[in-house]
Amino acid sequence: xxxxxxxxxxxxxxxxxxxxxxxxxxxxxxxxxxxxxxxxxxxxxxxxxxxxxxxxxxxxxxxxxxxxxxxxxxxxxxxxxxxxxxxxxxxxxxxxxxxxxxxxxxxxxxxxxxxxxxxxxxxxxxxxxxxxxxxxxxxxxxxxxxxxxxxxxxxxxxxxxxxxxxxxxxxxxxxxxxxxxxxxxxxxxxxxxxxxxxxxxxxxxxxxxxxxxxxxxxxxxxxxxxxxxxxxxxxxxxxxxxxxxxxxxxxxxxxxxxxxxxxxxxxxxxxxxxxxxxxxxxxxxxxxxxxxxxxxxxxxxxxxxxxxxxxxxxxxxxxxxxxxxxxxxxxxxxxxxxxxxxxxxxxxxxxxxxxxxxxxxxxxxxxxxxxxxxxxxxxxxxxxxxxxxxxxxxxxxxxxxxxxxxxxxxxxxxxxxxxxxxxxxxxxxxxxxxxxxxxxxxxxxxxxxxxxxxxxxxxxxxxxxxxxxxxxxxxxxxxxxxxxxxxxxxxxxxxxxxxxxxxxxxxxxxxxxxxxxxxxxxxxxxxxxxxxxxxxx
Length: 537
What we know:
The protein is an alpha/beta fold. The protein is built from 18 helices and 15 strands. The two termini are 43 Å apart. This is cysteine--tRNA ligase.
């Protein structure tokens, strides 16, 4: 079972998670997949359609049609709920729809059993520990919780009943206590992936069984083995196969037909192909209107994988970076494109996040301490910036969830706000405070929809500073000491020493900012990376 993508890998994004194998799930299975096998994420926030308020003189509600790329049709399609005016059945939440979002945990399968035996731990205890870690990661990334979160072990009865239906419809067969789906008896097999039956191979998660009628047949029920959990069934003691779990639980909570199903592109075949086959074999009216899949994560332009030893876990990343910096990094690439994970790009995202929050915090402070007149209309140029942000955001998100474009749409308003806050010309502008307040409000809406709005700008800035100090392996006390040394050197006209101190701190991502009230510091790109970025622009 998987979640449809709203913004990007984790979102809810995207999705970075603790998998059934533990809290150290690599980003290629977590961040690059919505969901990874067994888990899915919600990266967006439920909200009313974004629009400028009438009080600001900009356009009121004017929503665009949402278009999504459908893997099944291999083209973008206008999203239309299966039942207009009613709850949208999908693994997703976005726009102004009432959503029932389902995310399941597979708490028993071959790899869980193998890992538990390796650790000498009960499989269900292991699964619970991992799922708890996963939920912690999701909370750190500000992913909204699902409507319901079922576990396989609690739904074995539903799984057995679905297998019975498939057998009754002659799309499965029993062999020695195992039950296999017969792909030869389902002519539509391959319509999602575009594969022909002759091209298909057995799923990667199971060894080829010579008892199969076709090598592509897959297990619906597995006979019990020594040392494994099992349940009674009409075919003897055993446990569910992987694919059937998702079909049974989605049917139980969403019905046999619903709107959107999503996941990583590696799940298209065999997992999602098998889900379609077994769901329709159980109920001929079963339909999922939209299949949404996202691209993979590479590391330094190489495929991220455990075998290559280049995987990175969410838990490891957020030791050094703010979780929302990771989220912003992920949102910076369209969900269907591969995303290249590098420390340099993560640093860029962290720096951009700090700039955004600092601008909004400065705006918040000045508007709190000075009286503004909200009764008069805003200047025309401010209204234009608000309308432009509105249009670019709405257009990009409605066009197959282009979060990277939505993020870029904030650049100009943020620059305008900084001009109003800090430049001589900006400070003289008519309706300055009102303009700042209105711009901050609109950017806040965008951040909220993308799951990037912190509970407090001030707290988020301090957390970003703390992470920067950790990456630099330096304490704030030492930074203050370096600032004092540099101030003394400047007073003594020892400018070479002063420059050396600045460069020393800049090299590890600590930028010194000179102002009328003295010198302060902020996180920044480490100097070599900043120079590389500037060289590309």
